[in-house]
Amino acid sequence: MFNGKNISERIIEFIRDYYQNNNLKGVVIGISGGKDSAVVAGLFAKAIGPENIQGIWMPCHSKEQDKENAYKVAEYFGFNIVDVDLTKTYDNYVEQIKRTYPDVQDNNLIDANINIKPRLRMATLYYNAALMSSLKGGTYIVPGTSNACELFVGYFTKGGDSVSDIQVLADLTVEEVIEVGKAIGVPDQVLYKAPDDGLSGLTDEEKLGVKYNDIAKVIEGKDVIDKEKIMRLHKNNLHKFSVPVFRK
User: Fold this and answer.
1) Residues paired with 29 in a beta bridge
2) pLDDT digit string (tens) for 68-82?
3) Which residues are CB-neighbours of 6 under 8 A, at least 6 positions away?
4) How many CB atoms lie within 10 A of CB 82?
5) Nearest to residue 28, comparing CAs of 117, 118, 162, 123?
6) Where are the domains of the chain?
7) Contact call for residues 202 and 222 (beta carbons, < 8 A)
8) Is pLDDT of 155 > 90?
9) What is the pLDDT of residue 153?
10) How far apart are CA 152 and CA 132, in angstroms?
11) Residue 202: its pLDDT value, please?
């Protein structure tokens, strides 16, 4: 049976060992207002101390409630958080693309627009990691916040939230992430919030067309009604995990 307290302690030790072995100092985390980034932030706060965490709230046509949740997480775990508003950057970028391709219609840009947001955010996180490394006199890294269910069906953006220096939730299903969050005290309003990307206006499950609980069951080798659809998502997104390289 999954034990959230035991796993949280093991993850904290995993983080501490990695930092010690690689002479690292801190971490820059994108705080979205959702459970995954909150759990990651909480684990790092306990592993390396909140004084070594820089949280970044990166709105891009985002909801005010998400900001409130992000700041609640920072306050609860005691780390600093700053705003880097990407709305104008995003708007200017899309406007430039429209000028470059004047015949393109808005419906042609839906997926491109959704995916450029996490790419802008990842660039922002690594920029801040480099800045904090200089200011604090030690290396700051960027952790991933994806869980096992998201990764199994490829629910992430290549060059965006797929980019990270360390993964601490990648082997945990959504329900297991919640159990870890409960063990470390993530505020309930964040922990039990319906997961969404904060980008499309839809929940994750609405976008995927399947339930995270069913994805977890498929990962465990069980049968569910949507197993065929889940496996199709898995297979269609395998290209996101590796880059083919020609060898002479």
Assistant:
1) 55
2) 999 999 999 999 999
3) none
4) 12
5) 123
6) 4-241
7) no
8) yes
9) 96
10) 33
11) 75
